[in-house]
Amino acid sequence: MQSVLIVVHLVIVLALVGVVLLQRSEGGGLGMGGGGSGAGFMTGRGQANVLTRTTAILAALFFLTSLGLTILAGRQTAPGSIFDGATGGATAPSGAPSGDSGFQRLQQLQQLEAPSAPAPAVPSGPQVPNAE
């Protein structure tokens, strides 16, 4: 049903674009003016009314098909939260127990990487150069 409505919607869109492009410009906002000669395509006033009515009908059909597509799309998806499919974070490495928090895992890694030699002593105050 939705694919049929999409095809109808696209046909209406193409027809609407074509009918709008066929209409003669009356404003001259872009400086084109539409020309004053009688040799133009569809220059009669009655034909302009037909194009205006056709545009209005196609625009109404465009809105109706847009609303129909929106309603069909809303019925196909179940309401839910974006958090329904979310996991608790990154997956744990294969060697880590599942109950460990990230902080505990970090402490374990720091203990494994700790050097076995004692750290150098920190000086208690500023070093004074010897004046010899």
UniProtKB/TrEMBL annotation:
Give the Low complexity compositional bias ranges.
89-102
Q: Which UniProt keywords apply?
A: Cell membrane, Membrane, Protein transport, Translocation, Transmembrane, Transmembrane helix, Transport
Which top-level group of life is the source organism from?
Answer: Bacteria
Q: How does it sit in the membrane?
A: Multi-pass membrane protein
- The ranges of region (Disordered) come to 83-102
Keyword Transport in annotation: yes
Give start-end of the signal peptide: none
Is the keyword Transmembrane helix assigned to this protein?
yes
Family of this protein? Belongs to the SecG family.
Q: Tell me, what does this protein do in biology?
A: Involved in protein export. Participates in an early event of protein translocation.
What is the protein name stated in its UniProt record?
Protein-export membrane protein SecG
Organism this protein belongs to: Pseudochelatococcus lubricantis
